[in-house]
Structure formats: C-alpha cells, structure tokens
Amino acid sequence: MAVYALTGFSLVSLLSFGYMSWDWMKPSLVADVATDPMEKSLPPTFTRPPHIIFILTDDQGYHDIGYHGSDIQTPTLDRLAAEGVKLENYYIQPICTPSRSQLITGRYQIHTGLQHSIIRPRQPNCLPLDQVTLPQKLQEAGYSTHMVGKWHLGFYKKECLPTRRGFDTFLGSLTGNVDYYTYDNCDGPDVCGYDLHEGEDVAWDQSGKYSTFLYAQRVSKILASHSPKEPIFIYVAFQAVHTPLQSPKEYIYRYRSMGNVARRKYAAMVTCMDEAVKNITWALKKYGYYDNSVIVFSTDNGGQTFSGGSNWPLRGRKGTYWEGGVRGIGFVHSPLIKRKRRTSWALVHITDWYPTLVSLARGNLSNVQGLDGYDVWPAISEGKESPRTEILHNIDPLYNHAKYGSLEDGFGIWNTAVQASIRVGEWKLLTGDPGYSDWIPPQTLTNFPGSWWNLERLTDGLRKSVWLFNITADPYERYDLSEQRPDVVRTLLMRLVHYNRTAIPVRYPAENPRAHPDFNGGAWGPWASEDDGEDWEGGRESLKSRNKKKKKCKICKLRSFFRKLNTRLMSNRI
C-alpha cells in the first residue's frame, strides 16, 4: 500500500505542478519565426527539378528537438526548421519497417502486407517486389538516386536489396539494429553477424567508424562527385538514435550534468546527429546544390522512453498508437518554399512524401495506381489547405487481441479486440490494445521512477477496447469521449471496415534457419535464390551438413573477434 500511495503521489504531483499543461501553442516552442506570418517572398523559379535530400532519424522522440522545448541541443535542426516550414500535424508509424515501407511506396501497410510488426532478419520477407518505389519513380524522372543508412525492408534475396529497388548506390545496414562501431547485429543468442554493406557487397573495411559520421561523410562524397546541374535524390536514414546507446565521449561530456545515464547518452547521440546534418547542409552549399534543393526531415516513430527518448507531453511511446508513438517531428527546408519561416498545421502523413516528391521532380504518377498519399507541396510551400482529411494509422489482425474487445462493442460491424487506429478530421479512434498508455516526463532525474509508468494502463487500458479523442482540442489524449459520442465511434468504425475490405493478407513468414550469418561468411545478407518465394522451406539441411558449414565458418568468428578488439582499441567508445 505504501508503494502505491507513493506512486499515486508522484503522478498527482506532476499534474499539480503543471507538467501536463504544456502549452501546445506556446510561441517559444512551435510558433512562427517570421515577424509577418503572411510573408510571401517569392522563391527562385523552378528552372529544373530540385535536388531532394530526405533525412530520416530513428527513434527520435517528439520532445527531443530544441524547438519542442527539449533539454537536448539541436541548433542545426532548429535553424533549418525555423527558416523553413515546421510540420506540427505530421504523422508517421509507431515502428521502423512500417514507416519506411510507407515512405518508399506511398501506401498504407494494409496495402503491402506489412501491417504486422517489423521484418525480422531471418524472415524470408521484404518490401513486395511488385511495388514501384519512390527512388524508381525518381530514376524515371532522370534523377541519380542514392541511399545511405538503415534499410530494414528485407533482404532475404538480392531482388530485395536497395540497389535492386531504385537506388544507384547504397552504404548502410540491412537489418534494424547494429552496433554503431562494429556493425554487428544479434538476432538472438549465437545468431550474430556483421551488417554494413557497400552496394551489394559486405563493407568489412568500414568497421570501427561511428555510423553517424560515416553516413554524413558518404553524403558529402556523393555530392562532391556529382554535378549540381543534374538532379539528385539522397535518402539519408540515420541509425541514430536507435539503441544501442553509443556516442563519441566528447558529446557525452556536454551532458555530464544529466543524472539519468540513458538520457545522457541518448542526448549525446541526438546532438551528434544534429552536427551530421550540419555537415550535409554545408556540403550542399559548398558543391552548389543548395539553391535548388529541398531538404525534408522526418522521424520514423516515437521515442523509446526506457532508452532515453521522450515524447512529452504526448501520450505513449514507440510501438503504440497513442500520439507519442505516431506523431512525428517533421519539417521542410528549401529556398524554393514560397511562404517560409512558419508553422504548418496541415495534416500530413509519411505516405504523402511519395506523390509530393515525385511531383516536385516532374515525374509521372498517372501510371501509379492505389497510392494512399497526397501531394502536399502546395500546403507546405504556399500554406494551402491539405488535401488529406484522414489517416489510417493501421489495422493489425495478428496483434494480441484485447481481452475485453468484442463484435458487440463494435456495434456488430467491427471486432474491437483487433488492434486498429484511424483519424478522421479532428477525431481519432483506437480499438484493441493500442499499447502502453502513459505520459512520461523527460527523464532528467537520476534513477527516474518507472514503476508508475504502467499504472494507468493497468487501471484503464485493460478493461477497455475503444477510445475516442478530439485530437485537435485534446492532443494529449486525456479525455476519452467514446461513451459520450457513440455516433462518432460508429462512423469511424465504418471507416475501419472500409479500409479493411481493401487490405491484402499479412506477410509475416516464419524465420528460416538458412538466414544464419554463419552460412553467409559471418555477415547478414541474402540467402535465397531468385526462384525462391516467401514460403520457401529451404535450409532444412541435415545436422551433419549444417555442422560442416559451421566448421568452414570458424574463421568468420575469429575475424569478428579481432575486428571487435581492433575497434575498441581505436575508437573513443562509451
């Protein structure tokens, strides 16, 4: 009882002292920078297609940027956003693969079969090969296309690789989580391998270089070797600030006063990434690209709160359909924007970048059917109304069904045990289990208490399967209106039914033992042939045969050991 009393006191104290009354419209945090909000300075004329730089960060929380009132230093991102257009009604997906797939295809997860979880390293699965990707459309428009960073859209056969999906060059990792220095990734006990690739080859020689620096340097090299007279698209998918929490120690030293160790390391990684963006911007100017460029910055999902991230004052975290999981940091910086230095509240979703960027590139969208995204450039550049009025956050039929959900609770038209979420206009509906429903203040205290984080979920979430919020009036999702407005609930459930009728079957195959890095020279990479399908049952070799292959790969393990040892000796690793 004493523990619960103390827990309750902590939550009430936070509420009493105003921690949850963060001013959504506070000028110092998200308001326009321009003295004249109606400023309409004319941009340079579009004499040729613009250079496009798309920067995607990994697991950066909504609160973790300077202009959202963060304690983390992001001067470059703050300046770029202030001089461009901040997107304060911008939505992404709650986890890695879904956001990346929707960016690359312009389609909701339910239309690519990737509506459940992420693509695991050992799954014979990847972005459907029948999808025409964003870089492929830009190639058609005459662009040189390059990717640097994290792929996480599958690699079980070569056709799935970035260089087969529209990118002329690629330097980065194929899986979702690697060491920032050694580039090793473990997908379970004794299932470890190296994951840094140059094109379709393993980049063994790059081990030991901090990935954030390595990726920024590669972007500069690409720009230096290309002509600014020819359009270029560079997709920079930073590994930062996903775990493991690693940063050069000089960045950690800046945050030595932070009591929470995880937050301290995380903050260092964010600031390091900010400086990498500074170097990329500098390279754009140095090599003559900047005046005809469009820089898009986006996070991929909400921050992971137990790994140093913060989505304050939003509810929830990475992996949830609360605002803290799906409302992203986003802005566009470009000399070509007509109305700069302002904040846009136009509704924008990550699927919108596909048609928006292809249109900017003067590409052809007439032969692309079934896009879920909209061209939002007029809304961003000119301040016009967004063509988007609703967002399907997702429908995941495989996620654990909510204990208290039923078809009856869904007016006989929708099983509310199914995890789903949709926004229509100012209304947002969630069904099933949307994930941890907590509000977590920035982790600035030493040993910040975590026991109360799940308290609301235990007392509220487990006995419900339907939530309704007026997200415009209540962006923190504090007031559930599902009982007061059953008419709105029913309307939004009908929209879920509509979308569900268009969904294709979930692609989530069982893991295949043939994917083990030991069978691939110690590195993660393609293992299936061109003729193998997603249901391939290969890899069921005899134990004798598998042991022979493992013996042949003993040198891989020895090489990995010396690589790690060399990295630890040469790098300033924390």
From TrEMBL:
Residues 515-543 are annotated as: Disordered. InterPro entries: Alkaline_phosphatase_core_sf, ARSB, Sulfatase_CS, Sulfatase_N. Transmembrane segments: none annotated. The keyword Hydrolase applies. One of its GO terms (molecular function) is metal ion binding. It holds the Pfam family Sulfatase. Its cofactor is Ca(2+). This is ARSI Arylsulfatase. It comes from the Eukaryota. Residues 50-361 form the Sulfatase N-terminal domain. Belongs to the sulfatase family. Keywords: Calcium, Glycoprotein, Hydrolase, Metal-binding.
